[in-house]
Amino acid sequence: MILDVDCQNIMLNNFMYIVKNIMNIILIAAPILLILSLTITLFKMTIDPDEKKNPKKIWNAIKALVIIFFIPLSISIVMRLLGNDTEISSCYNNAKKPSAMVKYIEDEKEKEKKNHPRSR
């Protein structure tokens, strides 16, 4: 395999957890920021209807929202569709809080010791 991924690596787990949280924040914040931006722009248009830049600002804000919103959404959808079939999607889907990851690793080591009594 070209990319060997160890999902029990705490640094990788922390990175995946942070990426998931950032993408969730973007999915929530992007529409809110667009609504605020559009409200301000529409308010400016009511004050000065002759301004030619405002309609362009609206379309630019909508284009930016589409780009910013759909990249994290598409990554999340692809990772969910892949399920645990690939190592990276498995790590992404099972990323936990750092404290939960340490407990998970300890539990896995205990299970391994129980399954292999010679390794004690």
Describe the structure.
This protein is mainly alpha-helical. The protein has one domain. Helices cover 78% and strands 0% of the residues. It contains four helices and no strands. The chain has helices at residues 10-47, 53-82, 87-93, 98-115. Helix 1 runs antiparallel to helix 2 (53-82) and helix 2 (53-82) crosses helix 3. The protein is rod-shaped, with a radius of gyration of 23 Å.
SSE topology sketch:
Elements lengths: L9 H38 L5 H30 L4 H7 L4 H18 L5
Helix pairs in contact: 1-2, 2-3
N-to-C span? 31 Å
What is the global morphology?
A: rod-shaped
Query: Using only CA atoms, what is the Rg?
Result: 23 Å
Stretches where pLDDT is under 50 for at least 5 consecutive residues are none
Q: Helix tally? A: 4
Structural class: mainly alpha
User: What is the average of the pLDDT values?
Assistant: 79
Element-by-element helix/strand order:
HHHH
- Percent helix, as a range, is over 70%
- Our count of domains comes out at 1
Oligomer: single chain
The fraction of residues in strands falls at: under 5%
Tally the beta strands: 0
Main β sheet profile = none
